[in-house]
Amino acid sequence: MTSSAEHSMQSTEAHMELCTRSYTYTYTRSFVYSAFNENMAERSSSSESSSDSEVDRDFSYESYSDDNRDEAGQIMPYMYEPEVESDDDDGEHEIAGVDYDNEGRLNNINWCSCGECQIMPAVRESVCCKEINQVVQKMDNIEVDLNCITEHPGFYSVCLDQWVLETAYFQYRQQYGQGRHNATENQKNRHTAYRQMARWCWGFLGQNVRVPLPSCAVHKIREKYPSNEYRGFQEI
């Protein structure tokens, strides 16, 4: 009887030990699996955060680069409108065949070949579109025979269209800061139109390079956006 009871107790203890081991194994496996999942989740979260940081860093770098490059296609601050005479003419493009010391160009339009030029206050402004190679090339790029650059279908769109000029002005000011707060809309439009004309015909110009705009184009721009006084180029 005693032997049977001892055997029963031993069996019960063995069963309890087996259950304990089974529970411990199950709990441990569950804990390890849970810890593994948590670790993977942390790594995934860390990877996503790292990826987000890289995207932010790349975007910031791209934004910074865009703000500081001066490639063709962007409006640059040195696309000048016809300037008032100055003593420093270094870097100004000369036009072959145009005698800038010849005051015979003043007070007449005998030098005009297109029929649209007007009398200008300075010799350097007294230039016809047909005297400027870059402008002539622009006229020759279309199949229609043009007598003046102002007849080019692109001239109105690029240099006279109010909404195009407004957008170009915003782009310029966004990149180079605010100008004169007291400038009128016509002043802003003229200022931008002169730059547009230079960009359209010359493309990309280096820093401090001035180009002569033809009298006919200047006249059309001023006719569209008039003023009581014209002072040549000024920051608007």
UniProtKB/TrEMBL annotation:
Residues 99-233 form the P2X purinoreceptor 7 intracellular domain. Signal peptide: none annotated. It holds the Pfam family P2RX7_C. InterPro entries: P2RX7_C. Residues 54-72 have a biased composition (Basic and acidic residues). It comes from the Eukaryota. Residues 42-73 are annotated as: Disordered. Residues 42-52 have a biased composition (Low complexity). PANTHER family: P2X PURINORECEPTOR 7 INTRACELLULAR DOMAIN-CONTAINING PROTEIN, ZGC:195170. This is Uncharacterized protein LOC110983474. The gene is LOC110983474.
